[in-house]
Amino acid sequence: IMRPGTCSPLSPIFALVCSANAKDLPMTSHMESTGQFKIIVWEEENFQGKRSEFMMECPNAMERGFRKIRSIKVENGPWVGFEYPEYQGQQFILEKGDYPHWEAWSGNSAYRTEHLLSFRTIRCANHNDSRVTLYESENFQGYKFELTDDYPSLQAMGWSSKEVSSIRVLSGAWVAYQYPGYRGYQYILERDRQNGEYRKYTDYSSQAHSSQIQSIRRIQH
Fold it and tell me: In terms of domains, do 106 and 150 share one?
C-alpha cells in the first residue's frame, strides 16, 4: 500500500537479521557457506569460456583470472553485479535465473554494459517484509510516501514528480529505476547498507547523475 505517513521503528527481530555491524558477520558467513547464495559466472556470452562458482562476494573478477564476465546463472539468493571492480560503476540486480548475455541483466537500461567485473550478495532481501519511504527533498525532507509493494509507475500511484531526492529503507531490499516500467538506470537500496539511509541521490550509486526515479520494486529472494 502506498501512503503518506511517518515511518514506524524497525522491529528488533528484523534489525538483528539485517544489521551490518561486526557481530552479525559470522552469521552471514554461515549463510553463505551453507549455500544460501550461489552464482556461476562465465567469461563469454551464452555460458561459454572460463567458468567459476561463487558463494560469496567477488570484489574483482580479474583477480580470479577473468578478463570479464559476460554470462551468469544465479542459483541461490539475490546478487548485485557492477560494471567495474570494487563495486563501482553501474549496478544491476541479479535474481535467480539465467543471464546469457548483457541484455538479460541490463534490460531496457539507458546504459550499455556488456560485462561485469564485481558482484556481491544482497543479504537482507525479504519480499514479504519490505518497506521504504520516498522523500521529495534531500535529507528526508518534504513530501513523503511509504511503500510496501511494487510500483511500475510512481506517478500513476500519486507521486507528483519524476524526482525522488532521498530514500529511507525500513526493511528488506529494493531496486529503483530511472523510468516507468522498471527501465533505465538501476539503484539497489538495502536496509543493511548505509543503515538504510540514502540522504541524497548521489548515495544511490557512484554513477547516479540525477534524482530521477519513476518505478521501484522489492527484490526477490
Answer: no
Q: What angle do CA 150, 109, 106 make, to 5 degrees?
A: 85
CATH code of the domain containing 207: 2.60.20.10
pLDDT single digits (tens) 61-81:
999 999 999 999 999 999 999
Handedness of CA 143, 220, 43, 57 (dihedral sign): positive
- What's the predicted TM-score (pTM) here? 0.81
Q: Could you tell me if residue 9 is inside a domain?
A: no
pLDDT tens column, 108-125 = 665 778 899 999 999 999
Closest CA to 144 of 174, 166, 162, 129: 166
85 confidence band (pLDDT: 50, 70, 90) = very high
Domain hosting 208: range is: 131-218
Domain count along the chain = 2
- Which triple of cell numbers denotes residue 96? 535467480
